[in-house]
Amino acid sequence: MEEAMELRDLRAFVTLSDVLHFSQAAERLHITQSALSKQIKRLEQALGGALLARSAGATTLTPLGRALLDEARDIVRRSEQLPLTAQDVLAGNRGLLRVGFGVATNRLVPATVARFRRERPLVNIELHDLSTHHQILALSENRLDLGFCRLPAPRGWYAMPVVQAHFVAVLPADYPPVHALDELAAYPLAMLRRDRAPSFYDNLMHYLAQSGLRFQRLHYLNDFAAGIATAAAGIAWTILPSSTLVDHPAVRVLPLTEPAACWTIGLVCPAAPTTPLLQEFCRTVAEFSEIR
Asked: Staple partner for 250: which of 98, 126, 193, 232, CB 3.0–4.6 Å?
C-alpha cells in the first residue's frame, strides 16, 4: 500500500537539500537526526525511490531528488503562504468581488472602486455594466456579489441608498424654448429599446403614462450615446438618466424633477453583508454616497 506523503516530510527534504548535511538540517528543523532520517525515509517510500544518497560522510541528491526538488520547494513555499492568504481573506484584504452597476452610478462606482483598490490591492474586482433587471437576476443566481440597482430592492434584500437620479430631456438646440414636457408632445421622441435596459424603459413608460401625453413618432435606440447623437442631429429629442454626461453644443438639456421623474439607486444584495470583504466595500461606498 502506498504511503501518504506529509508536508513536514517535504519540508525536511527541502531543508536537507539546501545544506546536504543531516546534522545542520536537523538543527534548522529543531528535530533530532534520527527523526529527520525517518521523515526522509517515509517520503522516499511515498514517492517510490531514493531522494538522497549518503556515502563517506557526504550527502548528495539522487536523480529523482534533483528532479523533484523544485516542485517540492514550491509546495512548501505555497503551504507557508497559505495561512497569510487566509488571514488576508478573513480581514477582507484579498478575494474576488463581482459588482454590477448601471449608468446612474457611472461616476460613483469608478471613484469607489479606485479608492477600494488603493486600500486593498489584492482584491480582484469585476465590474459588470447591467440594467437593474439583469443585476437582480444575476444576484439571485449568485453571479454577482453586489449591485447598484434602482430601489426598491426585492423584499427581504439588503439595500443602502446611494444616489438620487432623475430624468432629463435632451433636445435639439434649434427647438423653440421649452419649459415643460407637454410642450414636446408634437415632436418626435427617441427612446432606448426595452431589451437594452428593461427597468429604465419600464420606468420611463410609467412616467410618460402619468404625464398623460402620447408621442406618436418614436425612434428606438440601442444606447444613450445614440440618443444624444439623435438629438444633436435634429432628428428627435430623447429622455435620459440625469447621470448621463451630455456635453454637445447642438443639444439643450431640460431637467425633469417632478416626483414621478425621480428615483433612488441603492447598493443591493440578497442578504446583509457578512464577510469582511463585502462589509469593507459597503463602508467605502457609504463614504462616496450622495445620500446621507
From this structure: 232
Residue with the three cell numbers 447642438: 250
Q: Does the pLDDT of residue 145 top 50, yes or no?
A: yes
* Residue 1 pLDDT level (bands cut at 50, 70, 90): very low
Instruction: Tell me how far apart the alpha carbons of residues 235 and 233 are, in angstroms, rounded to a whole number.
Output: 6
Q: Which domains does the chain have, with CATH numbers?
A: 7-88 (1.10.10.10), 95-158+266-288 (3.40.190.10), 163-263 (3.40.190.10)
Q: What is the pLDDT of residue 107?
A: 87
- 19-35, pLDDT tens digit by residue? 998 899 999 999 999 99
Residues with Cβ within 8 Å of 169's Cβ and at least 6 positions away in sequence, in order, are 178, 181, 184, 237, 238, 239, 253, 254, 256
* CA-closest candidate to residue 279, choices 90, 152, 129: 90
Q: How far apart are the first and last CA of the chain?
A: 67
pLDDT band at 277, cuts 50/70/90?
very high
Set of cell numbers at residue 193 = 429599446
Check: CB of residue 60 under 8 Å from CB of residue 19.
no
